[in-house]
Specification:
The N and C termini lie far apart (about 80 Å). The chain is elongated. Strands 1-2-4-3 form a four-stranded antiparallel beta sheet. The chain is built from five helices and four strands, in the order H-H-H-H-E-E-H-E-E. The protein is α+β, with helices and mostly antiparallel strands. The longest helix is centred in the first third of the chain and has 48 residues.
Length: about 180
Amino acid sequence: MKAFFFSRHLREKLLLIALLALGAATWLTGIARRGHTFWREWRATATVLTTQRQWLDNRADIEAAAARAIAHLDPARTFSSPRLLGELSTIADQIGVRSNTSSEILGTERTSQFAVNTVQFAIRNADLGAILSFYDEIDRRAPYLGIEQFSLTVSPGNPALLNVMLRVSSVEIVR
């Protein structure tokens, strides 16, 4: 290989060296990229594992705090998924926007002590006063009802009216 290289003209030697340097640079760039990706994933995994370890280490405290919180809740005022849907419909009736609503039960997350029920609720073509009234009514039912997600858009047909998409959750004590 050495004899082949030294028997070439100067410009061929330079082209061979440039070609080898380009190949080495490409190879090293790929290794660096894979190494960086591995390092990022390793750090992310380490962070997640540290967070999980902290939650697991504090499990007894978290369960005790949940038990204390549940002790202060009135089981008669908690809402199952159908009852939550009915309550939201009742609130919509009270403020006069029932005909412009739609809803969907998204599901329930259960633990040994309570369940969290979630409903997607939409109000279309309502004025700001009605939306604020709806919010105030939900706020009065806290901590049994809570808004997880809120999206407000202008109605395409009438800029004076608003469309609201809410994700409302309720706590239900499991007996």
